[in-house]
Amino acid sequence: MKIIKYLLLIILISGLAWGLFFFIKPSTEKNQSEIQPETYPEQNELVQNAKKPEEHPDSIPAMSEKEYHGSDLKLEKVLEDNASYARYSISYLSEGFKISGIMNIPKGAGPFPVLILNHGYIDPKFYTNGQGLKREQDFFARHGYAVLHSDYRNYAQSDFDPQNEIRPRSGYVEDVINAIEAVKKSDLQVFDKENIGMLGHSMGGGIALNVMVIKPDIAKAYVLLAPINSDYKVNFDKWVRSDWSDTAREFIEKYGEPQENPELWNSLSAKNYFYRVSSPVMLHQGTADDQVPVEWSRELDEMLKKENKAITYYEYPGESHTFTSAQNLVMQRTLEFLDSRLK
Question: What is the value of pTM for the model shown?
Answer without folding.
Answer: 0.84
